Amino acid sequence: MKTHLKGKTALITGASRGIGKATALRLAEEGVNIAINYLQNEEAAKKTAEEIQAKGVKTDIFQTNVGDFDAHPALIENVLKTFGTIDILIHNAALGAFKPVHRLKMNQWDLSFNINTKAFLSLVQKVIPIMEPKKEGSIIAISSLGSHRYIPNYGAIGISKAALEGMIRYLGVELMPKGIRVNGVSGGLVDTDALKAFPFFDTFKTEVLKRTPAGRIGKPEDLARVVAFLCSPESSWIVGQVLIADGGLSLI
Ligand SMILES: NC(=O)c1ccc[n+]([C@@H]2O[C@H](COP(=O)([O-])OP(=O)(O)OC[C@H]3O[C@@H](n4cnc5c(N)ncnc54)[C@H](OP(=O)(O)O)[C@@H]3O)[C@@H](O)[C@H]2O)c1
How far is the CA of 94 from the centre of ligand 1 (A)? Predict the structure, then answer.
């Protein structure tokens, strides 16, 4: 039985569905209390909360658009009211328009940067005063291969993830002396609702399958396991890194 994280509290953005949900369930299995942030799908958030509760930990749902930075103080305050502290922050929520970069409207660029990248910085700034006095904290952001490779129509998200990965490296260095460890997890194609938004998805999936040495596309749990590892002291010597879990796709 793994007990390294038992009794800790994690705030996970976008934890109602997909990779965020799988991460929430994985950490709950280790005894972590879970603050589930979501955007609009209250039904999914409540269902995730029920599944987490069944694992015997404390949980609650927190509706906040993380792209709205003015809402962050209230989000953190509400999580603190319910759980008393935050030991782990996982920024998983992401959105973005699917179109060629040269056709992006400025508001579409802002949308993905606000949610995917700037929200991470703002939330990190809010949890530092909570984690620093304890000299302990773990912060993880979820990225994707589109941060450093061309994926058709994925530029709005891919470029925001490139900046996110840069931020992970800088924050990794700046916050480690405070006892706060920052890392990232990146994946190839993962089977979640997000894929429904991909234009020409079937062709894209066939291509990815052909090029993935592991012979399948990813499952949310494939990334959740890596996130849990990075949250645990088992990975204490890993700082400011983005670990890729993609069945070998990025090597081909
Ligand atoms: N799927 C992939 O192929 C893949 C691959 C590599 C990396 N990733 C990364 O993994 C992360 C999760 O992706 P996913 O595929 O699991 O997505 P998903 O299934 O579409 O779920 C997105 C989650 O984020 C929440 N969300 C979206 N915008 C939000 C906002 N502005 N504020 C708060 N919550 C918000 C959604 O809440 P609601 O339920 O309320 O809508 C939902 O819980 C993203 O960072 C993505 O870039 C995905």
Answer: 5
